[in-house]
Amino acid sequence: MASLISLPLYEKTPCKSTVQRTSDFIIFFLLLSLVTYRLLHLKNHGLTWLLAFLCESWFTFVWFLVLNIKWNRVIFKTYPDHLLQGVPELPSVDMFVTTADPVLEPPIITVNTVLSLLAVDYPAQKLACYVSDDGCSPLTYYSLVEASKFAQLWVPFCRKYDIQVRAPFRYFSNDPIITLSDSTKEFQHEWKRMKNEYEQLSNKIEVAIKNCVPPCDFTGDFAEFSNVERKNHPTIIKVLWENEECLPDGLPHLVYISREKKHKHPHHYKAGAMNTLTRVSALMTNAPYMLNVDCDMFVNNPKVVLHAMCVLLDSKSESEIAYVQFPQRFYDGLKDDPYGNQVVVVYEYIARGIDGIQGPVYGGTGCFHRRKIIYGSSPDNVDSIDGKLAEVLSSGFGNSNELIKSAVDALKGKTGHEPYINLQSYVEAAYQIAGCGYEYGTSWGTKIGWIYGSTSEDVNTGQMIHKKGWRSAACTPDPPAFLGCAPSGGPTTMTQQKRWAAGLLEILFSKSCPIFGSLSVKLQWRQCLAYLWILTWGLRSIFELCYAALSAYCIIADSHFLPKVQEPALYIPVSLFITYNIYTLSEYLRAGQSVRAWWNNQRMARVTTMTAWLFGFLSVLLKLLGLSETVFEVTQKEQASNDGDDNDVGRFTFNESPIFVPGTTILLVHLTTLVVSLLKLQHPLAYDGNGSGPGEAFCSLWLVLCFWPFFKGLFGKGKHGIPKATIYKSATLAFLFIYWCRRIAMG
Ligand SMILES: O=c1ccn([C@@H]2O[C@H](COP(=O)(O)OP(=O)(O)O[C@H]3O[C@H](CO)[C@@H](O)[C@H](O)[C@H]3O)[C@@H](O)[C@H]2O)c(=O)[nH]1
Ligand SMILES: [Mn+2]
């Protein structure tokens, strides 16, 4: 294949970064100076300085990790046109969609993602789409059945007119007048028909949700769904559509899978679902490449598979690059990113940096994997897999002979079935491998497939691959390949952040910890540092909380933890603060973001670290103590919401969750200390004698500004207000903290 390809399929270019490296260094230098200053004066001060020293050492360590990450930023560029000229035959791809809850993940969202996948620009006989439904919902199934009928019209329409956005809800929500004005009569006619058909499809689904018909009479095709409980039901696998004649312009196969679940059998959440998808697809189509997306991540660039293949089919990649990760981008993002979760700037600077080391971290969605690598092959044996080695590798696959045979084929590089396949004939064997007991005594979840033990199965699995010495590649085509929905409310954002922090810490505190990886295996040490930056999110909460408590304590006890006004050392924290903020602001501006977006992200970074990540940390602590297990709480997906008055869009929302207690407490404490320091109400018996100064007061002011959404929440109503119970609890905690500070101050 290599000789046929003359033009490059992809290029990796470094970003210019002198200014950035210099700024990163200045900040690092200032942090080091601060730590040194602390160390030199440690013995003249008490515990407060020791704590400040520990926190600042941590902040310096984190910045060192950032410095390392950003050092070699790169951009990957792919050329699909060169691919079509150079590659005689494109390989097959199995596409996986996971959904878990028809309420939190409305079926119409999953349907749109599936439709957009079925309609990608790629020979249809090379594609198969598998949907895993962990909710075992007849509604999801019904919606997919209806969607597969609509797809018969939609996919040809997209191909004929080269439609760019192939998720119908997005396509029809874009301004139709512009699309239609300079088009042919025929197109206008078909467009209207298609819009009408799509509206009928959404109506049917809506009606089904409301009235529970027809799925709920559980006859015919729905019989298997009668008496199912979400967490206790047999396997259901249904071939919704099969491209029987293997037509390149037909419709890709579509298969629905709900794996078996039983009470007390661990199902490992998304990782378990991914492994079931991997096995079932191995029997049916056994494509050498697998794409996986979350149910809300529709295809926004129809050439996405071709872009991925540019990297994967490049002659050198075969023994080097394990997977191609597309960035997570979001549609209908709220103006100025009030929840700080659009991650535009993080992608630009952090992700591009990691891309330049050993390659992007696996992000759980929008990623193309090679099947044999998911099956455990490493860069050393990838060229030399013979029958014997393949058999050794396939020993952990479980006792399905069909599966083992397909795995041996996949490992040897012989994949895909011969032209005629009959998916239906594999369904029986598929039931066996989708059973909840199948994985007992096998290597699934440990050495093969998606790795268990963390609710951030993505990072865990990607890291396992990097540890074998594989690299990965990022792909950032324009327009963005996939778009999904980012949480647009306080509670959802907090739950998601909490789960991430917990899942990442689970990896840090397990035997998959990257530190072991870079000592003994082939994880590059700079990649190991990059992983450490990610995995330690939850730990940051402790240091930030401690620092926040220090400044409050110093005001109440009339002590100080920052240099006094007359000390030249004051310039260190002051210049650190100024440089850091100007620098991060410039990053936002350079990435095309507003000043407001910068501020919202700074503020939300403090809020999530000290609240959601704290809860993530605590839940891992409980797990380590054997008191409870971490759970994967599914993030709620909403379609563009038109409800509510426009004034309130982006205003922070709350609910009864205890996750809002720490934030409210921090706010109340610092409001109090701010008043105390302005009115000079400190305790007269304070021990230090040289009391708190403007530095400490400024810290309180800054925190109050960061928690301003909570301040508004104190007076807000409905979902915009912090519940009374939360306020009472927080007020009690704040009171206890202040009381305790005074007690210590009085000795
Ligand atoms: O028991 C489960 C739980 C979740 N999912 C699916 O997993 C996906 C991701 O879940 P979501 O609630 O959307 O989590 P996010 O926080 O939005 O997801 C990010 O973080 C996850 C790891 O924490 C990754 O798995 C995701 O790919 C990544 O987008 C969704 O398609 C779910 O349907 C399952 O299939 N089974
Ligand atoms: Mn998601």
UniProtKB/TrEMBL annotation:
Top-level taxon of the source organism: Eukaryota
Transmembrane region(s): 21-40, 46-67, 528-550, 570-589, 610-628, 659-679, 691-710, 722-741
Positions bound to UDP-alpha-D-glucose: 105, 134
The keyword tRNA processing belongs to this UniProt entry's keyword annotation: no
Keywords: Cell wall biogenesis/degradation, Coiled coil, Glycosyltransferase, Membrane, Transferase, Transmembrane, Transmembrane helix
Localization per Swiss-Prot or TrEMBL: Endomembrane system
Gene Ontology terms for molecular function: cellulose synthase (UDP-forming) activity
Residue positions of the active site: 134, 458
GO annotation, cellular component aspect: endomembrane system; membrane
Residue positions binding Mn(2+): 270, 294
Keyword Repressor: no
Short name of one Pfam family: Cellulose_synt
Coiled-coil intervals: 184-211
GO biological process: cell wall organization; cellulose biosynthetic process
Chief location: membrane
Protein name: Cellulose synthase-like protein H1
Organism listed in the record: Carya illinoinensis
Lineage: Eukaryota, Viridiplantae, Streptophyta, Embryophyta, Tracheophyta
